């Protein structure tokens, strides 16, 4: 609907505000009109009284004509400290109000005008004022209120009609101005957004800022910057996707070749040839690392991780399962495992993904300690506060080298040990983000490393997000 559009609402608001301004002008204008009306009656009455002073022999018909022309019943003129009834006629009713225009304030004039408009009865009022041109000390008249009210209503209607015409003309002009200076540029931006959404990879659809309004110009420049960055990112992601598909195919075929080769290497381990016996373990280790690299690459390139199926789970069971698996993988390595999980600690997470998160971090710690050939310890502890669950994993390994810290959570770049892919921490960080939490490296040095998993307890509050 037109009213729900920006232009429609602007037109309605403009009309309302202009009418409101006219109403605020209307009341003082009517009060001013009433004052002028009464002063005019006093002036006409003064002229009639002066005519009587000039000729005392005015007959009754002429006196009535003078009073009718002045629009009053009686005229009292005070000259030389004498109060004299100059012209008179019978009053149809008692005097209801007396108004002294010599000392009236703007508030009193507005109040009396509003009350007169609201009063529909014809009453008799007394009006006191100062004679013009010093023709006396005071002039006083009695007059009916209905002609005054009728004149005020007629004047008010003309003012309202004029106000309505001015409001409509002003609103239309403002509407056309806003439509030309504001709405057309906004519609242009909208058209560019829709056009760009149809083919974001087409650089020709990126907007060229040309708005004359400063704020719209800034919006167009921001949109241009966003579209340029997005187009570049889409091209980069397309190239990465194509390269990833090629790498996945190569890894798949290479894994099959390596698996077959590994079968022959396993048979070579039974050879009595000393040279074969010395080379076979190294060859097996190299083949295992190659197969592991292919499998990790395939797993990472399949698709995005599924959204976590959040449920209430006891943390102790997950931690015990991880530790049991790592003890078996460690074999004869001199590594001890410990855990400090509060009894009954239950958190909300995907059990399978939480196992993978903790397992990836612990596995990296175990492999780092094994690479040193020394004994070591891995500890898992947990705590909670009002907002989060925190799981801390520490080890006594050699710490992370500076190069690894720079790309710690970047796939294929954050690897620490020789032959590592760097996918373990990358996958763990991605899974933690899927839970709405974060994975942080708290500290690392030659005495060990500490990671902290922070998982939020509450739901996200959309009202706190900025627009």
From TrEMBL:
Reaction equation(s) it catalyzes: ATP + protein L-histidine = ADP + protein N-phospho-L-histidine
Keywords on record: Kinase, Membrane, Phosphoprotein, Transferase, Transmembrane, Transmembrane helix
SUPFAM superfamilies: ATPase domain of HSP90 chaperone/DNA topoisomerase II/histidine kinase, Homodimeric domain of signal transducing histidine kinase
PROSITE patterns: HIS_KIN
Subcellular location field: Membrane
InterPro entries named among the record's database cross-references: HATPase_C_sf (IPR036890), HATPase_dom (IPR003594), His_kinase_dom (IPR005467), HisK_dim/P_dom (IPR003661), HisK_dim/P_sf (IPR036097), Sig_transdc_His_kin-like_C (IPR004358), TCS_sensor_his_kinase (IPR050428)
Residues that span the membrane, as ranges: 6-31, 159-182
Protein name: histidine kinase
Originating organism: Profundibacter amoris
């Amino acid at each position: 609907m037109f009213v729900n559009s920006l232009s429609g609402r602007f037109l309605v608001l403009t009309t309302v505000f202009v009418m409101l301004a006219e109403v605020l002008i209307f009341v003082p204008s009517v009060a001013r009109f009433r004052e002028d009306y009464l002063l005019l009656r006093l002036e006409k009455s003064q002229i009639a009284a002066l005519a009587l002073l000039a000729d005392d022999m005015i007959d009754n018909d002429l006196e009535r004509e003078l009073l009718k022309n002045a629009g009053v019943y009686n005229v009292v003129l005070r000259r030389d400290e004498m109060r004299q009834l100059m012209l008179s006629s019978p009053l149809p009713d008692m005097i209801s109000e007396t108004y002294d225009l010599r000392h009236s304030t703007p508030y009193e004039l507005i109040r009396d005008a509003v009350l007169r408009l609201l009063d529909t009865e014809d009453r008799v009022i007394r009006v006191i004022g100062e004679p013009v041109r010093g023709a006396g000390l005071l002039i006083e008249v009695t007059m009916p209120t209905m002609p005054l009210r009728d004149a005020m209503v007629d004047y008010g209607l003309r003012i309202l009609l004029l106000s309505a015409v001015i409001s409509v003309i002003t609103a239309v002009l403002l509407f056309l101005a806003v439509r030309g200076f504001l709405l057309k540029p906004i519609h242009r931006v909208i058209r560019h957004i829709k056009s760009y959404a149809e083919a974001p990879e087409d650089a020709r659809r990126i907007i060229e800022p040309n708005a004359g309004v400063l704020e719209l110009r800034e919006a167009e420049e921001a949109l241009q910057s966003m579209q340029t960055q997005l187009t570049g990112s889409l091209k980069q992601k397309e190239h990465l996707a194509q390269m990833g598909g090629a790498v996945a195919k190569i890894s798949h075929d290479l894994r099959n070749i390596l698996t077959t080769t590994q079968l022959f290497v396993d048979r070579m381990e039974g050879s009595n040839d000393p040279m074969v016996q010395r080379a076979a373990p190294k060859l097996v280790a190299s083949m295992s690392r190659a197969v592991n690299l292919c499998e990790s690459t395939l797993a990472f390139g399949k698709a995005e991780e599924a959204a976590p199926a959040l449920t209430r789970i006891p943390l102790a069971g997950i931690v015990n399962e991880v530790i049991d698996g790592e003890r078996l993988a460690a074999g004869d390595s001199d590594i001890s495992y410990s855990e400090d999980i509060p009894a009954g600690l239950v958190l909300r997470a995907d059990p399978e993904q939480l196992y993978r998160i903790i397992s990836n971090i612990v596995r990296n710690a175990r492999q780092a300690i094994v690479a040193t050939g020394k004994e070591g310890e891995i500890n898992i502890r947990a705590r909670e506060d009002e907002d989060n669950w925190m799981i801390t994993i520490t080890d006594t390994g050699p710490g992370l080298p500076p190069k690894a810290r720079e790309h710690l959570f970047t796939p294929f770049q954050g690897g620490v040990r020789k032959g590592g892919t760097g996918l373990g921490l990358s996958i763990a960080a991605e899974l933690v983000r899927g839970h709405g939490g974060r994975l942080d490296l708290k500290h690392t040095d030659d005495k060990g490393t500490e990671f902290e998993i922070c998982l939020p307890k509450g739901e996200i509050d959309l009202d706190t997000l900025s627009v």
